[in-house]
Amino acid sequence: MTDGNPVRLAVLVSGNGTNLQAVIDRIASGGINATIACVISNRHDAFALKRAEKHNIPAIIHESGAYANRREYDAVLVDMLRDRGVELVVLAGFMRILTDVMVTAFPHAIMNIHPALLPAFPGLHAQKQALDYGVRFTGCTVHFVDGGTDTGPILLQAVVPVLEDDTEEKLAARIQHEEHRIYPEAIRLFCAGKFCVDGRRVRLSP
């Protein structure tokens, strides 16, 4: 995205929304050439919706109960995003696995952040997986979403040491600190047109 116009984002959430807040703050400071067109949650009680409302961002509840399957849910989601001119979809604790309907509609334009150094420890409870395995280092990964679970091309990563007295909660808190740093940075680079996808590799252009 290099035409100078702010990139239109949608942020998909299910919970507290701390990564959403990090993105909101970075945009407000002028650090990202983007605007958040909407925040969409699959849970009506997600605190992230209140964060959106506080910053006058349209907040939409899109629960799954009315839909026969995940593909039908995603088809309506795609329509919502296209109606709002969304160019980049940011997953910020969105607790649903997207289907091919979404991935095909936004190729290399859906980002996720995962609390591990992918491809290690994909899926749920990544921090517990790291502790149970006994690794010395873990971290977080920003990646594009593809048809697998945490398998898309990697954009940015940050390393976090695992300490002797770590619990899952302590480790998760330190990883989250790095998430709040690298997720907005990945979005900034995308909006500046700096990413080029070459197979599985994502290259940074000058």
Could you please describe the fold and organization of this structure?
One of its GO terms (molecular function) is phosphoribosylglycinamide formyltransferase activity. Pathway: Purine metabolism; IMP biosynthesis via de novo pathway; N(2)-formyl-N(1)-(5-phospho-D-ribosyl)glycinamide from N(1)-(5-phospho-D-ribosyl)glycinamide (10-formyl THF route): step 1/1. (6R)-10-formyltetrahydrofolate binds at residues 70, 95-98, 112. By secondary structure, this protein is α/β, with parallel strands linked by helices. It has a single domain (7-196), classed as Rossmann fold (3-Layer(aba) Sandwich), CATH 3.40.50. 34% of the residues lie in helices and 25% in strands. It contains 6 helices and 9 strands. It has helices at 18-28, 47-54, 70-83, 100-105, 126-133, 168-191, and strands at residues 7-13, 34-41, 59-61, 88-92, 110-114, 137-144, 154-161, 195-198, 201-204. The protein has a 7-stranded mixed beta sheet with strand order 3-2-1-4-5-6-7. Strands 8-9 form a two-stranded antiparallel ribbon. Helix 4 links the parallel strand 4 and strand 5. Helix 1 runs parallel beside helix 6 (168-191). The model has no long low-confidence stretch (mean pLDDT 97).
